[in-house]
Write a structure and sequence with these properties.
45% of the residues lie in helices and 15% in strands. The chain has 275 residues and is of the alpha/beta class. It has two domains: 5-114, Rossmann fold, CATH 3.40.50; 118-273, Rossmann fold (3-Layer(aba) Sandwich), CATH 3.40.50.300. β3 (61-66), α3 and β4 (87-89) form a beta-alpha-beta unit. α2 (45-53) packs parallel to α3, α5 packs antiparallel against α6 and α6 (157-166) crosses α10 (256-273). The longest helix is centred in the C-terminal third of the chain and has 18 residues, at 256-273. The chain starts with a strand and ends with a helix.
């Protein structure tokens, strides 16, 4: 473990922002060996002293923080300087620069992004809608969805739906199966709902399905993991999407976040057209 850096993630809130930023940083350094310790809701000097006290016997320490209280930031950075710990604030310069640009004084209120406002409740509503409309459930009111994702089995429909829901989009997803018709609300004169088709490379899908069946300890289905059948399924879905002129996203080399970003872009384009 001597070659490992010890990353201390210190936040005055949930730590979600800091965690995401660190993930983006580490992705740029494939040979970066590290362990992490996360400290959330750090809002007192006593908490900071306790955290840094645990660092004294450690080597290769890096401290990243998202703290908006300027006095607490000063206390932390001074303590790190005395101990020769590299210490980097993620939000400090951004907040200061925005304050100058907007000519407004920042509130420096911890958890400011977690207020119980309309946006928060809309997001909760979107999550509830999405969970109740997963995998073809409750299609009677599907026109209430902001986004409808279509695709054959194991094309990342559910994880993408959940991610979109957390961004505030009411999302429904439906698995495509041959000889089973889609809800009429989707196929008949539906120009307002954002309907997106998801496809994937056949070989990649074969691996995903095999892993799925192994993890569930299910017997190998001859058709479910037959490469020729998979190719037919994908071809069937592509023809359906083209028939209805629904945009298609190939998720083969995309993360859930990247797929969701593409869906949101399509949604915004459609929304602007209908304004």
């Amino acid at each position: 473990m001597k070659d490992f850096y010890k990353i201390y993630l210190v936040s005055d809130s949930t730590g979600e922002t800091l965690d995401r930023i660190f993930l983006a940083i580490k992705a740029q350094f494939p040979n970066f060996l590290y362990t992490t310790k996360q400290y959330s809701f750090v809002r007192t000097e006593h908490q900071i002293e306790k955290i840094l006290g645990g660092c004294e016997k450690e080597e290769r320490i890096i401290i990243l923080y998202t703290i908006v209280d300027t006095k607490l930031v000063k206390f932390l950075t001074n303590k790190c300087k005395l101990s020769n710990f590299p210490c980097f604030g993620i939000l400090g310069n951004l907040i200061m620069n925005f304050s100058k640009l907007l000519n407004q004084k920042a509130t420096h209120k911890p958890s400011g992004q977690h207020v119980l406002d309309d946006e928060y409740y809309n997001r909760i509503e979107a999550i509830q809608f999405t969970m109740s409309h997963d995998d073809g459930k409750m299609t009677d009111d599907i026109e209430k969805a902001d986004v409808v994702l279509l695709g054959i089995s194991r094309t990342s429909k559910t994880p993408t739906s959940i991610y979109l829901a957390n961004r505030g989009y009411k999302t429904s997803n439906i698995a495509l199966v041959k000889n089973i018709n889609l809800p009429k609300q989707l196929t008949e004169n539906n120009k307002n709902t954002c309907i997106v088709g998801l496809v994937v490379d056949p070989d990649r899908l074969l691996d995903v399905r095999k892993n799925r069946m192994t993890s569930l300890k299910e017997k190998q289905s001859s058709t479910y993991i037959d490469i020729e059948n998979i190719k037919e399924e994908i071809d069937f879905s592509k023809k359906l999407f083209k028939k209805h002129k629904w945009p298609i996203i190939d998720v083969t080399r995309k993360s859930v976040e990247e797929t969701a970003a593409s869906v949101i872009k399509i949604h915004d384009i459609l929304k602007n057209k209908n304004v």
